[in-house]
Amino acid sequence: LELLAAAATRVVDELTPAIAAEAARVVELRGKGLRVREPIFDPEARLADARALASEVLEAIRAGDPARTEAQLGELEEVLDGTRERLDATGRLHTELPRLVAERRAALAAARGRTAPARVTLGELEKAYAHASFAAESDNLGECDALFTQIETLCSDAEQDGQAATQRYLAGDEKLGRAAAALTAITELLDAIDQRKSEIEAATAHARAELARAREARATLGKLAGAHAHAVGAGPVGVLESSEHALAEVDETMAAPRPEWFGLDQRASQLAAVLTDAAAVAQRDIDAHAAAEREVSDGGAVLERVRSELGASTVDRAPANARLAAATGELE
Fold first, then answer.
1. Contact yes or no for 19/47 (Cβ under 8 A)
2. Whole-angstrom distance, CA of residue 325 vs CA of residue 332
């Protein structure tokens, strides 16, 4: 009951007077020479909707239906707020629309000014790199041209909408909003060209650094395998042998005209990782072999000491000799 009573008070004391106030504002604006009616906004129709909704809210209150009351009250507020916003915009746009059109045209001119440098950048990319490296951006200027034409049309139409004889201020503002969105898209398309150039240059530098790292790792692996051929396993040796051709192939591709640096970066990084891992495995093989040799050496010294002690002993040595022979066999 409290909710229904509060809703009734709001409709009677707040929303119904607000509807009347907006109706009076329509009259005031028209008194200043504004038509205040266009295809996308008919204030009389919206205010009639608001009055009908106010009556429906009161009927729902009398019926004791809180859910319907709340739903229709929300719809009434939405209609009233929308009407108020559009009347505000109409009163503002009839003087501001020409300035807004001029701003969009200035932004359009600035965007057009960026196309010449972008065209130069695309030419540089085409000359130096594989087309696949920037295929996604190669038609960006064509897309910009289509958007330029669209913006020109929108600005011209908005300018016409703002004429005193036309007075489609809200429609003109909507078109300028679409023009702004198109300008944002143009900025993104032009930025993408510069961004792709930076990415290709970064991939180029990284690929060269990774190839140098791969060569260094292979040199380390070669030294380890050469100096400790008896210790390094077949895995690292196989990597050493197979990597020579792979490195030469990557090097040759880098030196060829218009390389595809993203793929080369990936291949060089993979080679560097494989060779670095192989060098680490080779070092572990060497360390393990050295540790095993130390164990054998230490065990042999112990056996020699035991033999010497047994040889000097006069007691029955048969059981000890048997254990010594067994230990010697295991050590060998």
1. yes
2. 11
Phi and psi based region of residue 167 (left: phi greater than 0; alpha: psi -120 to 50; beta: remaining)? left
- What's the token pair of residue 209? 């650094």
Long-range contacts, 13-22 (Cβ 8 Å, 24+): 15/50, 15/54, 15/76, 15/77, 15/80, 16/54, 18/80, 18/84, 19/47, 19/50, 19/51, 19/54, 19/80, 22/47, 22/50, 22/80, 22/83, 22/84, 22/87
Report the candidate in 97, 185, 116, 108 with the shortest Cα–Cα distance to residue 151.
108
What is the C-alpha to C-alpha distance for residues 332 and 328, in angstroms, rounded to an integer?
6
DSSP structure string for 4-70: HHHHHHHIIIIIHHHHHHHHHHHHHHHHTT----BTTB-HHHHHHHHHHHHHHHHHHHHTT-HHHHH
Residue 202 amino acid letter: A
How far apart, in Å, are the Cα atoms of 312 and each of 185, 307, 309, 316?
98, 9, 5, 12
Cα gap 262→268, rounded to integer Å: 10
- Identity at 2, one-letter amino acid code: E
Residue-wise pLDDT for 76-95, tens only, equals 999 999 999 999 999 999 99
Task: Note the pLDDT tens digit of each residue in 258-293.
Answer: 999 999 999 999 999 999 999 999 999 999 999 988
Check pLDDT > 50 for residue 324. Answer: no
Greater confidence, 74 or 298? 74
Q: What percent of the chain lies above the pLDDT cut of 70?
A: 89
Give percent above pLDDT 90 in the chain: 81
- For residue 305, the model assigns a pLDDT of 60
pLDDT at 318: 57
> 36 φ, ψ to 5°?
50, 45
In b/e form, how buried is each residue of 281-295, taking b as 16+ CB within 10 angstroms? bbbebbeeeeeeeee
